[in-house]
Structure formats: structure tokens, C-alpha cells
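Input set for joint prediction.
Command: fold jointly, output C-alpha cells.
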Amino acid sequence: MEFTRKHYDSLNETIYSATHESGLKVILIKKEGFKKNYATFSTKYGSINTQFVVPGENEVTCVTPGIAHFLEHKVFEQPDGSNAFNDFSKYGANANAFTSFGVTNYLFSCTDYFFENLEILLNFVQTPYFTEENVEKEKGIIAQEIKMYKDDPEQTCMYNCLEAMYEKHPVRINIAGDVEDIMKTTPELLYKCYKTFYHPSNMALICVGNIDEDKLWECVEKNIKPVPSQEKITQVFPTEGKNVYKSRIEAEFDIPTPMFMIGFKDNATGGCSDEILKREVLTTCLLRTLFGRSSSFYEKLYEEGIINKTFSAFYEYEESCGYAAFFGESEKIDEVKGRIFETVKAAKDYGIDKESFERAKKVLCGQFMAILDKVESLGNEYMMAYHKGVNLFEYADVCKALTVEDAQKRIDELFNESQCAVSAVFPKKE
Amino acid sequence: MDRIELKKGINLYTLKDDKFKSFRACVLLHRPLSREEVTLNTLLTATMRMQSKNFPSAREISEELENLYGGEMIARASKYGERHIIKLGVQSVSDNALGEKGNFKRAMKLLYDLVLNSGTGEGFSEDVVRIEKKNIADSISAQKNDKRGYSVLRLQEEMCKGEPYGVNPMGYIEDLERIDTNELYAHYKKVLCESRIDIFFTGNFDEEEAKLAASQFAENLNEREIPPIKEVHKEVKGEVRSVSDKMDVTQGKLCMGFRCREGLGREDYAKTVVYNCMFGGSAVSKLFNNVREKLSLCYYVGSSVDRLKEIMIVRSGVEFENFKTAYDEIMNQQEMMENGDFTEEEIEFAKKQLTSAYEANIDSIASMEEYYMMQLLLETDISIPEMVDMVNKVTREDIIFVAKGMRLDTVYYMEGEA
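C-alpha cells >
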């Protein structure tokens, strides 16, 4: 057997991992007693991967952000004109795909016929079929999808905030792209991106369930097509300034209560996997301590009616960019911003409350444990972390080791006026 | 599922499975869905999660949830057919997974207090109620933000005017303003005394501890005899009604409401499930493959059946200029179902799809709870394997039988303003 088995005693979970000769990473998270099986076949290619050097070439290739998502739509289409969705349905699987900023993921879940479904998954993703005609047809569907996002005040609020924070980084553009750019998509362009990013060495197959490891390996051996090896893809990301691009963007929508996203552009990016994981867990923990449901910030603003239950504070990290954000509804958006800074200042001056910080750690550990009960979430979280170079199963240990001192330092790095951008969506004036 | 009658009208259900690392405990209070009560229930549920005798502020409740390893509080009033069910519960990490005792007990203490000692012990605080009123008013106004959801809500309102089903489960702003704190507290007492109560434990927990916790609940509640709530079944009479709203959207929404022949949500439900999966309820459906994929008429299109009310709703996102074409094509697909214009393969796919979906329920504590709760609402006791078996026995004739039992009642269009 090719797999390396690792048992995490404290979690009582077992993981098998191996690298196939094609370069494909294969991971099995074994869940005994579970009926559902889940597989994700993903590539480290999302909307932000717009500039790259194709292995073997010297020049940088530039594409538009919507291409990864366009590809995702088209990969389902097969040479015989059929749609891979239908093949899954033969075996009762639920198949889907999504494109994020950094990843494109093809997935299915099923109870029976796991290996039949896995064969379908592996094969259709390895069989691109793009023609003038089928690419043309897809433009209409995707344009509809983009329109739908643009009708959505929440999405607009989020993207406006990213647009304000970042001047050049492609994270500022909708994952599905702009309609104008989408219309220029050609089969040649799709093939070029496909060949570069859908090479097995840039992909991972992650399975979760009560799946036999030997059979899994057999299935991989049988279905991963031999390809010439490929060097690592060089990604190019634009250099961003330390400060936000714009401090404020406003929009109007047919909504009753104003909506906001206040973002803090993180200047700490990159680093090794341990650093990335720690930064992510630490920042999430810090945000929860200062702005979570049991914080005095939340209690006061909620009681004063400045924020409501839609309020949340979170941290996002993508390759080469990260940000902390506050999302919610409020009639007094500037007041929210002011109070965030007051809270930060108090934490700087008087220190972070240790007890609150320890409670926040407990929460993060508990949330991680809860994911272990959910086959699909576990697969997705593991996959997203994997493509960032992070091992999800180290989450609890990293979390337990966090100290208030770490958090205290992080405050200074993150919460400065020059790093803050406000996106506000107001109700339309009659 | 094991059932224990704790007291007349109060039952305990346990669904234990140690493969999970979490447990979930929920108390269900059954209320009828009605215009008179709906806003009170929504406000009550929101208020109950904010304050109890031993956890006198939202902040203290939040702190306690954090101490429960980020325990999740469940507090919602949801529409099931023509019932409004208030669900209060806690989900957290099991003692087994933590390797320490006490987390379960601690969670039960919190849940007990939230349900039985809500408010200050003598009433609700004016401040809490004022804030929750505003929040609910905001949520009601915000229903319009989610255009997909709002179009379905509007269809239900129009199609079922005068029936409890047409009531907005979130409540009404004008009713909210009229409720005072004393009235709300009186409603709380009434709900505790006069509702059918079901207590559910799901996941990884100690059964003895669960029984003990549940009997402590029941000890402080009275016996009750509550007649079951039943949905009003209606048949389509007269012409198809057509309703439209103008809103600030760039993409139109088309929703179509069908009424089902009596029994399709009940004794014939296995047949209906197969029909719906083939018609519009899945990615193998006719609507998905033809209307969306082949004809590119919609960004999304799908159908769902409310088995309690016996209504089917088709929802879709369509360009304004394609309203008519999409409508015709949806009706065309429904006619094909009636005429038996579908393949053996389509039936087979749907069955496999459904088998997988039903079987997967046992991997989620929330889905298990939901599945078995639905059995209670329907007054049946069909286990998941039994349901899978029934689905797999459905014939071509059964599916045609269901298709012929669907009658279009109302069509709703969301149009652009310009």
C-alpha cells in the first residue's frame, strides 16, 4: 500500500496520505460508522490566479479573474455533449463544484457506489471539452449568474469593501468576473488555463468517509491519466501598498437598513505553513475576544441598537492577501467604526482580558471538533487549508498554544486607520 | 428512535449514536400558525434567547455558550405546514470527545433555565423586548433583500390568502408595535402550559443523563391534552391566478404554486418524492436539465413539495423577456410527467438520488432530528430504511398518478421597476 497512515490520538481520527506518481496528492480521512462518503477533486486555481508563468514559458500570462469560474462551468460538459452531473445521478450521488478566490473544487457525496462515482469525478475533470459553440452558450448563463450577484446587496457590500482595500490585487473583483470580460472568453484561453492548472501536481483528491484505503489507491492508479511532469507554476501577484486604496465606497440598494463591511487590510502575508495557520487562528481568536457575542463591545452596541444580530467579525486569508472584516447592518455606520477603534485602543492601553481570550480559544477548539462530525465540511475545510499549505488537523493544537501576548502583538499589526476601509450600502432614496 | 412519555403531552425522544463528537438537545413547542399568534411567537423566541433567571443578560448567555466549547444555541420559530414550532436547544461537544465529564450537564442547566426560567423570573425586561422588537421589525423588512426567498413568500401569501399557510412566519410589523411586555410574558406562560412539547436528544450523550435532564423538565410542567394541529387541504378552483410585483431587480423571478391531490403529502408521499426529484427537485430533474441547461432559460429553477400542506412550488430566476417562454417550458415539462414521457433511467436516477439523500440523514444530528420530528408532525413512524424501501418500490404508474394530481393555482412574477 502506498498510503502513510497517521492517527491523531486526541481527536481519535485517522488520515491516510500519499502522492501519486503524477504528482497528485491523495488524502483519505477515514470516518468509521458514517454512511456518507465525500470526495473533493480540487485544483489550486481560483479567481485571484490571474498572472502566472506557464511552466516551460518565460513570459507572464495574464488572464481575467472570471476564467477560473468559467472553466468550472465548462469542465462538466463532456465530448459526447452530455453533462457529468447526469452520470453522477446514475449512482445517486450529489455532485457540485465551486470556485473561490484561490481554489476550484469538484465534489460529490453519496452513500452507495462510492468508487463508481469517484471514477466519474476523476474522469470528467480530466476530460476538457471546449468548443466555440459550447463556450458561447455558457456566456449567457454566466452573465445571468453575475447579474444575480450584482442584485444582491450583501455581495455588493463585500466586493466594494475589497475594492476599497485593494488597488490591484485580483481579490477585488467578483469571483465570477465582469460580464464584459466574460464575453471575451475563448476555447483557446480555457485550454491554456486548464493545461496549466489542472495538472495533477497542482491538484488534490481528498476523500472523507468509511472508505477502503486499498480500493481507493487502486481507483486512483486506474483513473489518473499519465501526463508529462510539470514544474511548479510561478504565480505573480501585484504589489499592494500597505494602506487601503480608498477609505470608503458607498452604494444604494432597495433595502430597509444600511449595511456595512469594515475591512482591515492585513500587511502580514505569506510565510511558512505554521505561520499562516497560527496567524489565521490567532486573528480569529482575537476578533472573537474583542468583538464576539460576549464582548462588552457587542453588548453595548447591541443594547444601544447600533448593531443587530447580523453583526460578525471574521478573518480571511488568501494567498498573498488577508484581511479582518466586520459585517452587519446599522443606521450609524461611522459610529460602529469609531467604537471598533475605541475597543482596539482600550485593548492596547489596558491589555486583553485573559479570561475572555481563554473562552475564545475554547470556542475555536469546539468549532473544530464540530466539523469532525460533518463529512462534507470536514472535506472542504481540509481541502481549503491544504491548498494554503496548512494541515487542518493541527488546528486544535495551534489554538491551545495561543497566548494573550501573541494577540496583543497582533493588534498593533492589524488595526490602524490607514489600513481601514468602509463599504456602506444605503437604502435607496425615494 | 426511542420514545418515553414523560407526562401527558410531553414526550422525550432519543436518537443516540456515539460516532458523533457532539450532541444536540432541543425542546419543541408546537403552536398553530395564525396571524393572531405568529408575531407573538417570533418575538417570544427572540426574547427567550436573551435573558433567563440565572443568566440574566445576553452577554452571560453568550459567555456560557463559549464555556460550552462554542456551544450553539438553537432558538427559532419555524413554519411547518400550518404550524409554528418554537425550537429551543443547545448543541455542543460531547463529554466523550472532550475526555472530561460535565459539559453535557452544564449545557442542560443552561437549556433548562432558558426554557423554564425565561426573563427575570417574574416577567421580561422592557429593554430586552424593545430591542428584539426592533430587530424583528428589521428582519421582516429585510425579507425583501433576499429576492429568491421573497418571491416564494409572496407567492405563498397570494396563493393562500385567508389560509394559515399564507401567514408570514416572521410576523408583521404593525402587530409587533401593539404587543406589550406583559402580554408577551402572558403568552410565554400560555405557550409553556398549553403546547404539545417534544424533547429531542440526538448524537453522542449518556442516555441516563438525558433521561434525568428531561424528567427534570417535565417535573416543572403540567400535564396537557392538546388536539393535534392539522393543515387545511384545498383543491384548485377556477382559473389560474397571476400576480406580479415591481421591484428594483435586474433579473426577474418566476414562481408557480401547485396544489396537490389529497394524500400526496401523506400516504402517497414516497411516490411524490420520486415525482418531485424527477420533475424539479434535483440536478437530475427535467427542469434543471431542460429549462436551465438545454435552453439556458433560467439561472436557477427547482421545485419543492410541502408535504404537510400538500403544495408544490416551482421557483426560478429568469430574464424579464423570457418570462413567457420559461413559464411555457415549465408547464410543458409538467405535462410530460403527466403523459409518462420519461425514461426508466430517469426513474432509476431519482431513486438512487433519494436513497442517498435519505441514508445520509443518519450522518447529521440536525438532519436526524429534523427527519424524525417530521414523522411526529405527520403522526407516522416510518424509519429511514423503511422510507428508502418505499421509494425504491415506486412504479412508473405511481409517478404519473402523482403528476396528474398537480394543479397550478397561482403564478407570481417579480418584475423590474423600469
